[in-house]
Every structure is written in structure tokens, then in C-alpha cells.
Amino acid sequence: MRAVVLAGGRGTRLRPLTDTRPKPLVPFMGAPFAHGLLRGLAAAGVTRATLLVGADAAPFDPLVHAGPDLGVEVGVVTEAAPLDTAGAARRLLREDGAADGDPVLVCNGDILTDLDHAGLVSRHRAAGAVATIALTRVDDTSSFGVVVCDAVGRVERFVEKPLPGTLAADTVNAGTYVLAARAFDPFPEDGPLSFERAVFPGLVEAGAVVLGVASDAYWQDLGTPERYLAGHRAVLQGRCRWPAAPGLVPREGLVAVHDSASVDPSAVLDAAVVGARCVIGPRVRLVDAVLHDDVVVGEGAHVRGAILGPGVRVAAGARVEPGTVAADGAELC
């Protein structure tokens, strides 16, 4: 089975981490986020994954080379100009001549989820759907487009950001799709195209079978520092099943530490992830913090609610405040 990963976003809200790497390659649980995503897709039966990125494919070269270790063949396709969420996927599947009857799994390169991808594909096949949308439930629909389905899950309509309590449905698009090759037939043009605003509403209007599948799988957009930290907490707490990096070892107290890191016995860690080759000094406190590889935290320093990029140095006695996102190699005093 083939997967297409939408990975063209610039990740501006995660700067400065995304100043030096694409958002899907920002470390998550000790390895680039895309590593965990691709491992999960491989477990669901995906053998080939194509990342649709911006104008520059070079930053993704390490991911292509890592493909065999992750269990999938990885390719990268660029777009010289932005093509919205569906334009590049339409072009790719047409140029590759995707065979009808062989569904394609589409997912976002910045959404943390433990969705049952294989189960979603099975539902798609059983319904004979042209498109299937993974759905998640939300308490407040006013910030989302709601997907309204009938009793058997067939999508009837889309309602944009309804006020709470004005609509019985509470299911929203969770950013993972299964497509039949003919899904793009009603959209023959080339250029920008949106799944949310054009493809799915257009298919429903044309009478095609578009299936909505709701689940209780974990779902979180990792596009802000707050959500990035929340995603780590969800994995540490067991609320989201996610493959940790090789060598990242769980410890007591919602903590994961790479086996190459050095942590002084007097250090206190709570809801913290410590990457490879980090050095944590005496009487350090790490609370709700993510440390990428090669970070050094000096004696008595406190780090709370922060993300420290690779090679960051925290001075002895320093106080790193909540909301801090430290760039690669930064020195914090």
C-alpha cells in the first residue's frame, strides 16, 4: 500500500527549531517526528511513502536514506509554488498512474495520532468509498469544520465552525484520508486544490460515497510549542501510542531518557524527555521539558515548560522559564 504525507508547511510557530530543519524532522520522543510516523505506517502495511514538500527536497535526504530502517521506501516530491492541501497529491497520483482499486493513504506530517490506519483502509474498502475521512470528536466545534454523517457513516455535509450546541454532530476532520484513484476525476485542472474546501465537498455534492470514520484515537496538531509539549506528555502518560527512538528508555515519573545520556542521581525529572548524549548535572530540575540531543544542563539549573534544541548549554543555577524554545546551540544563563 502507498501513503502520501503532506509535509509542505513551514512550521513558523515552532521557530527557532524549524529554522534549521523542516517541521516533520523536528525531534519527537527522541527521533525526527517523521520517523515515528513512517514506522506506524509501515506497521499498517504501507510499503511506499511519498512526502510532498515545499521547493527544497534536500533537507529530507536523511529521511530517504533512513527509509529501509523504518520499513518503508521513502520518496520526496517538491512543489515550486504552493498547491494547497490537495494539489500536489492530485498531480503525484496522476503522474504515477495510481491503479484504480488500490487505495492511497494520505496523512499530515505534523499531526500526532495513534489512529488505526489499517482499520481505516479496511472500512474504506468495505464501503466501496471514493474517499474516507478519519474523524475525531471535539467539545467546542466553533473552531473547526464539522463533518455531518448519516447513520452508516456516509458524509452528508460540512458545516464550518458552528457555535457550540447549534449542531448535533461533533466530529471534525482529523487530517488522515484514504482515497481511491478516481477521487480526483472531478477535478481535472492542475494547480492549487484543497481537500477541505473543494475535493470532499465536491465529491459529496456529486453523489460519490465519502465515508467518515470517527474514533477515539489520540489526535493533536504539533504546530505550536504548547501542543508539542502536550504531545510528549500524552505519549509519556500512555494516552498516545507512539514508537520511541531506539535507545530512549522510559523511567519512573513520566520520564524518558536516552541510554547514552548522563543524569546525575540528585537531579529531579518529571514529565521530561532527555535526548542522546545529554548531560544533566547535580540538583537539576527538569519539569515538563523536552531536551534534544547533546544538551548540557549545569548544576542546580531549573528547566520548566521548555524545549531545548540540540547542543543547548544551560548554565549552572540558571532558570529556564515556561515557554522557552531554545535554538540549536544556544547558551542559556
Textual characterization of the structure:
- The chain has helices at 33-43, 61-70, 84-96, 117-127, 195-205, 225-236, and strands at residues 2-6, 27-28, 31-32, 48-52, 73-77, 104-108, 111-113, 131-137, 145-149, 155-160, 171-179, 210-214, 219-221, 248-251, 255-258, 262-263, 268-274, 279-280, 285-291, 296-297, 302-304, 307-308, 313-314, 319-320, 325-326, 331-332.
- With 333 residues, the chain is α/β, with parallel strands linked by helices.
- It folds into 2 domains: 2-215, Alpha-Beta Complex (Spore Coat Polysaccharide Biosynthesis Protein SpsA, Chain A), CATH 3.90.550; 249-332, Hexapeptide repeat proteins (UDP N-Acetylglucosamine Acyltransferase, domain 1, 3 Solenoid).
- Strands 14, 15, 17, 19, 21, 22, 24 and 25 form an 8-stranded mixed beta sheet that branches. The protein has a 7-stranded mixed beta sheet with strand order 5-4-1-6-11-8-12, sandwiched between helices.
- Strand 4, helix 2 and strand 5 (73-77) form a beta-alpha-beta unit.
- The radius of gyration is 21 Å and the shape is elongated.
